[in-house]
Amino acid sequence: MKKKDFIQKLAEYCEFENTKLAIDTPLKSIEGYDSLAIMSMIAFIDENFNVKVSDKEIESLTDLNSLIELIGEEKFD
Amino acid sequence: MGTQILQISTYLPHKVLSNQELSTEFNRWEPEKIENKLGVKERHVSGNTETAADLAYNAAIKVLETFDKEKIDMLILCTQSPDYFLPTTACVLQERLSLRTDIGAFDFNLGCSGYIYGLAMAKSFINTNIAKNVLLITAETYTKHINPNDLANRTIFGDAAAATIIDQSDSEHIFEFVLGTDGKGKDNLIVPNGCFRNKYEINPVIKVTNAGDKYTDNDLFMNGPEIFNFTIEKVPVVVNKCLEKNFLTIDDIDYFVFHQANKFMIEYLRKKIRIPKEKFYNNLLETGNTVSSTIPIAISDLIKNKVIAKGSKVLLCGFGVGYSWGAVIIEL
Questions:
Q1: B33 touching A (Cβ < 8 Å)
Q2: Phi, psi at residue B138, to the nearest 5°?
């Protein structure tokens, strides 16, 4: 998956209200980044990458780049 | 000889809490967002003086309207909201329901997996000739464990009870079980204070989640992401193990009833396990997550709406607090 597509699909899946996200947009500044969105995010990453992200890892995330690093750069085109 | 689920009655407390009321109180989540994502529109909340035993009593008298209570020779109550440390709530209920005194009665403390374990015990008691007609009650008032300022948990959970009669039958209708436990998840769904490890605190520290929900160690705490991770890892394995143990496949099962945790989670599990949508229950619209009662409420609803009937094979799977999980296939 391309990083650009990842960001767009994730935003749709998690129903972020502002879908114009950049890779360095701080997660906590995203409208709709709440516990419901986090549940969706876990599902999205499980479904597409077969990667499990823990509560602590989610806590440590700053932006989508840090999420990509967590999933593994090698899994992106 | 074998065992079967003969009948189920359910009971919901009268007081209803709607998404609109929560939305007005917290001004955070739109009612539609809650309904679309979690699948809950409203939940029932027990009154201040109404306990799980009261809900259990009401569910039981309903099921005993059509079953001779003199025949009940074992009462099992699943609850994590007992009336007292002691005596056991089931003993109190034996007297309130005017059941015979030459019967067994006891509680067991499990949450979302409780109904499966209750069925396992009922089947065992009957097949070993310890009892003939078991009254299994699930009754929970999680709303009493939740801090009033905790929107997330107040949104998800509702109170309810269900009473099930399991009796002898000519052939076995409660098939093979798969049970499991992993106590490493104990801190992810817990009421830390109130028993003897940590006593109830008069002035507890108020904690705040990232989302702004407030709670203390006297209250129910749920680590949503970790519970979700546990569920998506464990449930597909348990369901497949249960099918294997019974020498059945997804195609052989008429309907799948999982613990109704929330709509999104259940739907994700369905897709992950590749269960056809038309054979899968996903409805907690008017009840919320009622812990150990979601499965009997679902079976009762499916029977009432004639979606399943005599002869239907239904796979049941409960999972949650503990961690604890279990699955079984029943034939109505």
A1: yes
A2: -110, 130
